[in-house]
Amino acid sequence: MLPAIAAPPQRLDQPDPLDHSFAQTYIRAYRWMLLARLTEEKLANLYRGGKVQGGVFLGKGQEAVSVAVGISLRRGDVFAPLIRDQAGRFAFGESILDCTRTYLGSRLGPMRGRDGNVHRGRPDEGMLPMISHLGAMIPVVAGTLLARKFRGQFGTVGATCIGDGGTSTGAFHEALNLAAVERLPLVVVVANNQYAYSTPNDRQFACRDLVDKAVGYGIEGHSVDGTSLADCLEVLGRAVDQARGGGGPQLVVASLLRLVGHGEHDDASYIDPALRNSSLGLDCLTLAEQHIVDSDWADGAALAAWKEDAQQQVEEAVATTTREPAPDPNEEDWCALASRHLRDGFVTE
Amino acid sequence: MITYLEAIREAQARALADDPRVYIYGQDVGAFGGAFKATKGLAKEYPGRVIDAPISEDAMIGSAIGAALEGMRPIIEVQFADFSTVGFNQVVNQAATLHWRTNIPCPITVRLPSGGTSGAGPFHSQSMEALYAHYPGLIVMTPATVEDAYSMLLEAVAIDDPVIFCEHKYLYYHLKADALPTEATPTGKARIARAGRDATIVTYSAMVHEAIACADELATEGWEIEVIDLRSVKPLDTDTVLASVARTGRLLAVGEAWPWGGVTAEIVARVATDGFGLLDVPPMRLNAKDTPVPFHPNLWGTHRPTARSIAAKLRDLLRL
User: What CATH number is attached to the domain comprising A244?
Assistant: First the structure.
């Protein structure tokens, strides 16, 4: 493993000796994106080999905006990622083992086999575990910030991600409105990947641009090219800074295209070829690598070494996880309550 | 004298006074003091801790979950239990699953002004306890007395799990006690509201008082009817119910909620499966009619069980 990228991840509030320039931030972000891409490719292979229970949901094409969220946050901030946020999760501090253990059903993972794949988190470390109902995490993040406001604790930010489809939910609307009323330091990042599962945007909303919704809530809106890591880092950095500085909620809308199916079960045949061939269909990871080379920030040997390092981390994590025990129904504690004495004792149980 | 509603207000005042983690969030709960005045004066007494929310039940309850993760003890007032359907997703999918999924507790209290009052109609009268009790991970309280309204609400705030607190609007002003209680029966323990030997009525919330009135009426005919107040429908104190049926041999389960499924069905199922031999005659249930709750008092008074309809059912049970 190389320094500056190896776990435990660095945060921007813990100055890294290498992290004094935009180039170094860019490279760190690129390497998290790379690790996310390779992790997900491995998960997809395992899925195709029948080694994954349940679904596999990939973030291919969304790594740039995702990593820009994670890397803009600090320790003490709150992050509720959505299904295509592996890069952001890594940048925020999730270990690769949390990912592989949850996907592969290890009892040692944070969800202990009780929940799987992307439904994972560590709330006591500021990473909230998503539920499947879209929009539902936004009010929860708002609530963490409301609590901090009550306590007079300022200077932290809560961020969460959603897709174009999720902007149609009541929870999205209610939470953005509530956050605006309370002027909470909330950053909501919409990855507008043009499709909600198979439903195109013209069947999802009728506004000119999703960022226009910000005006309706009385909050700041930002648009960003989701294929450009540089653009994502700049815009997300600014949005997070503004929220942290007391500027209230921020809505960031990234334009991009999902380069995979909704899940690995989905061949995405519904995606319009014209979109695939447009600038939206460019791969943010390839573009970022090209940008590094064009800027002379690293040579081919360094890029190859980064890939090898990431691949090794993935292989090690999967190898470790596959040796770990699965949950055992006979040892499972079948009690949903924290207050065990209040469990309902139906006597035929 | 203190009313059921005042007891709820006093419990919240005490929770705010005793625990800096407590705050109250809901529509009109601030300076206005709540639609029913359950938070009257509290915003002034506890500045910044009793806060008006936008009309957003999903976001109100979702935000309470986030605040609980930060170590707070939120009390959410939903203006009418009926409106909690808008926040249902946050309760049953987020709050109820959180501890099981992550081992991190979710101590929120959601107050639901529940049940029917004359003239309130289909959308201000519902009894939601069975819906919430169906989901693992929730505690569902249904206090029937001034004392329980006070002590159970304080316990709800202290419990490390999400608590659905079904307070009955009909009891708000009708029910009075001499003073607030100084001791409390723990949640999960039912109460024998009236002792008897000829039949057992198992019920909860406002129906406890209809059942007691019915038992008083039947006492004039020489029947001694036992009335059990469940206090909480989840957990449900099956032991106390079975012990009572063992004494009386006859069971009538009464609820203000609708008849399909629900608390009364659960009681009958438990007694039938675990106490079949205790029954001298088949058990009976009495619920509201299987229609929306009607507006007009003439219809409403017939839609829900009353002391009179319970007595009619009970006479059938005793004749068997």
Answer: 3.40.50.970
The pLDDT tens digits of the residues spanning A93-123 come to 999 999 999 999 999 999 999 999 999 999 9
Query: In this complex, which of A133, A174, A347 lies closest to B56 when CB atoms are compared?
Result: A174
B88 interfacial to chain A (CB closer than 8 Å): no
Cα atoms found within 13 Å of the Cα of residue B178, Cβ hemisphere only: 1
Domain total in chain A: 1
| Domain contains A163 | yes
Does some domain include residue A12?
no
Residue A200 lies in a domain: yes
Beta strands in chain A (DSSP E): 78-80, 158-163, 186-192, 195-196, 199-200, 220-225, 250-255
How does pLDDT run across A260-277, given as a tens digit for each residue?
A: 999 999 999 999 999 999
How many C-beta atoms lie closer than 10 Å to residue B135's C-beta?
19
Q: Which of B:285-314 have CB within 8 Å of A?
A: none
Is A194 among the domain residues?
A: yes
Flag whether pLDDT at B7 surpasses 70.
yes
Query: Tokens 């935000």 sit at which residue?
Result: B63
Nearest to B67 among A146, A174, A336 (CB): A146
Q: Do B188 and A128 touch (CB under 8 A)?
A: no
- By annotation, the residues of B acting in catalysis are 124
Q: What ipTM was predicted for this assembly?
A: 0.96
d(CA A56, CA A263): 6
- Which B positions 165-194 lie with beta carbon below 8 A of chain A? 187-188
Do B66 and A138 count as a contact with CB atoms less than 8 A apart? no
Q: Which domains does chain B have, with CATH numbers?
A: 2-177 (3.40.50.970), 191-319 (3.40.50.920)
